[in-house]
Every structure is written in structure tokens, then in C-alpha cells.
Amino acid sequence: ECGAMGHRALPVRKKIPHGPPPFPVSGPVIQFVTINAAERGGDPFLAVADRILESARFYHERGRWFLHLFLVMPDHLHMLATFPANGCMAVCGAWKRYVARMFGVSFQTNLFDCRIRDSLDYADKWAYIRDNPVRKGIVADVDDWPWWIAFNPRTGSPSGRARSPSAPHYGAMGH
């Protein structure tokens, strides 16, 4: 149909539901999470990247989340993490408040998260996260980016500079 000016009306984008799944979730879930700085562009996180990583490690060591992979970019961060059932928003919210208060960074109000469905999805998200600094043109090789940590999903210990993931362990919150 045409509007008053004779132009075709643009299609209305279907709103995709984003929230807890409509089915019961029992046990921990692995999620891919992106958290953005309040102002995109620039590099507000790099001045405190080591502290951000240390606070993420602290949450891991205290069992608030199980980090599979956590990477700090200049104005956003990505993680693959296991959260208690329906706990992603609450845990990430508490962590963001702590980091904002302690290190003076500002975050966007919300975050993007999606559940990891299977091993292929896990490997795809791992590669996406690790390749992010290369895709953004910041470094030439993934190993040139220093601000990331990973933990072995079977043992919970730091997994070093792994280029690819171990198979996910969906019960990792028990560590």
C-alpha cells in the first residue's frame, strides 16, 4: 500500500521475544552474553581491562558464574558463561554495578544474551568471541589480544591461551 506521499509502506519488523524461555529451565545454562559500554565507540574499557578481567575471575572463583570464555573489547565485552537457571540478568546486573562503582565505567542498561543449544553453537560462539578483535581490525591475530580469560569446563581451572574450546560441560556450576 502507498502512504500519503505515494511511497510504499515499509514492512513492520516482527518483534522477536527476548526473555526467559516459555518452558521450565532446570539446572544451569550456558549463555553467550554481550555487555556494552554506555557510550559506544572509543575505548572506555581498555584503561581498566585488567581490573574488569580480575573482577570476572573473582565472580568465577566465588561460583556466581562459571566462565568458559570472557573477552574485553574497547567498548563492549563478550562471555560464554554458565549461570544458575534464569540467573543471567541478576548475576550480570550485580557484576555491572560493582564494576561501575569500583572502576568508574558506565554500561548500557541491558545486555544481550542467548542460550547455547549444543556443542556446535558453543564452538561457533567461542570462535566469534575470540575473533572479535581481529574482525574489528584491532589486531592481526587472535593471540595478539591480551584481554581475555578462559576456564576449562571440566576442571574449572584456567585453560591458558586456547584457540578453540573444550567440549562444553553443562553442569559446570557445580565446580
Summary of the model, kept short:
26% of the residues lie in helices and 17% in strands.
Your description of this structure?
This protein is α+β, with helices and mostly antiparallel strands and 175 residues long. Helices cover 26% and strands 17% of the residues. The protein has helices at residues 49-61, 88-103, 119-135; strands at residues 29-36, 66-72, 76-83, 112-115, 148-150. A five-stranded antiparallel beta sheet has the order 4-1-3-2-5, with helices on both faces. The relative contact order is 0.20. The model is unreliable at 1-5 and 167-175 (pLDDT under 50).
Q: What share of residues is helical?
A: 25-40%
Derived from helix and strand composition plus strand pairing, the structural class reads: alpha+beta
What is the count of β-strands? 5
**pLDDT < 50 stretches:** 1-5, 167-175
- Quick one: overall form? globular
Our measurement of the CA-to-CA distance between the termini, rounded to an integer number of angstroms, reads 58 Å
What's the number of helices?
3
Mean of pLDDT: 81
Please report which band the strand proportion falls in: under 5%, 5-15%, 15-25%, 25-35%, 35-45% or over 45%: 15-25%
Question: Mind summarizing the main beta sheet?
Answer: 5 strands, antiparallel
The radius of gyration over CA amounts to 18 Å
Which series of helices and strands comes N to C? EHEEHEHE
Largest sheet: spatial strand order: 4-1-3-2-5
